[in-house]
Specification:
With 208 residues, this protein is an alpha/beta fold. Helices cover 26% and strands 39% of the residues.
């Protein structure tokens, strides 16, 4: 489990990726009391740090939409029980009208050998003969490298506090490909959060 957590952290926090693909699992229920203005943001990953980083990004983007959002990790620590009673107590304290819950449902990792293109340098010098040149070619060939592909799928549900039932759900899938020794800047967290919040807005869970 620790190994999987470290790989997931590397995938989500170190590497940037293209926008996640969004699949609607449950359309907005007719009984939903949307739009929601006070949202408790909860993520269920095995790493507390990853939960905190992800929730922080989601809360940031929700607040930019005018939503009163609070991260569950801002109200707990690593010793706080992660269970229904803990989150219900938060909802009651905050007066939330919805809970946004995200968890990882699939992580697929594959790798393949990648051949790097050789680099070459040329040293061109004239000779004593007319229109004849001396050319020295030197190639620098790197050994094959390992290219790793991470496919991460997150499931997100919105629960109505009033009905105490899930009223909406999506899955977001991201594919991240990079060399095993490649250092890539950027983060996919803003894109993951943006995909979720854009879908919520488009489906009427948040005020536009």
């Amino acid at each position: 489990m620790k190994k999987i957590t470290l790989i997931l952290i590397a995938a989500l926090l170190i590497s940037a990726c293209a926008g996640p693909r969004v699949t609607r699992v449950q359309t907005l229920a007719e009984s939903a009391d949307a739009p929601y203005n006070r949202v408790l943001v909860v993520s269920l990953f095995s790493s507390f740090d990853l939960r905190r980083f992800f929730e922080k990004e989601v809360v940031k983007q929700l607040k930019e939409r005018g939503v009163e959002a609070v991260a569950s990790t801002s109200m707990m620590n690593t010793k706080t029980p992660v269970n229904r009673d803990t989150f219900l107590a938060m909802v009651e304290e905050l007066g939330s009208d919805a809970v946004l819950l995200t968890q990882m449902v699939d992580l697929d990792i594959s790798s393949k050998e990648k051949t790097f293109r050789p680099q070459a340098t040329y040293n061109i010098r004239p000779t004593y003969y007319y229109n004849v040149w001396s050319v020295e070619l030197t190639e620098y060939v790197q050994p094959p490298g390992l290219e790793v592909k991470h496919q991460v799928t997150l499931a997100t549900q919105v629960f109505s506090v009033l009905s105490k039932e899930p009223v909406w759900a999506i899955e977001t899938a991201s594919t991240i490909t990079k060399g095993i020794d490649e250092k890539r800047r950027g983060s996919s967290l803003p894109k993951e959060a943006s995909a979720i919040i854009n879908a919520m807005t488009g489906d009427g869970l948040l005020a536009k």
